[in-house]
Design a protein that fits this description.
By secondary structure, this protein is α+β, with helices and mostly antiparallel strands. 20% of the residues lie in helices and 22% in strands. The longest helix is centred in the middle third of the chain and has 17 residues.
Length: 114
């Protein structure tokens, strides 16, 4: 199986502006931000998307969401608010087959999204 771009970032093979990392997840700034603050939280474990995660990934998924909240707070988004999004499959807008959570903030976000 070929490593995804995100797996290479998690392994330090491709540079990224890391805002948080531990033994299970990495959070880094998106290189094509869609909001003034836009970062990604990815598990180090190569899970293609939320649709392919299974029961044994439950704790890891909870950790990912906890880190989303922690980094949002670190980035000053808690008071004004932010959005957490994961895209699944082509129609969902997923372009990298590695589970990732987008955290967007720093401006008023509209609904529905594009």
């Amino acid at each position: 199986m070929t490593k995804t771009l995100f797996a290479k970032i998690a392994d330090g093979e491709i540079p990224a502006e890391i805002v948080y990392e531990d033994d299970r997840v990495v959070a880094f700034k998106d290189i094509q931000p869609q909001a003034p603050i836009h970062f990604l939280v990815i598990p180090r474990k190569p899970i293609a998307s939320l649709a392919t995660a299974d029961q044994k990934d439950t704790e890891l998924l909870g950790h990912c969401l906890s880190i989303c909240a922690s980094v949002a707070q670190q980035e000053g988004l808690t008071e004004s608010g932010y959005r957490v999004v994961t895209n699944i499959g082509e129609d969902g807008g997923q372009t990298v087959p590695h589970l990732h959570f987008h955290i967007l903030g720093g401006r008023s976000l509209q609904w529905p999204p594009g």
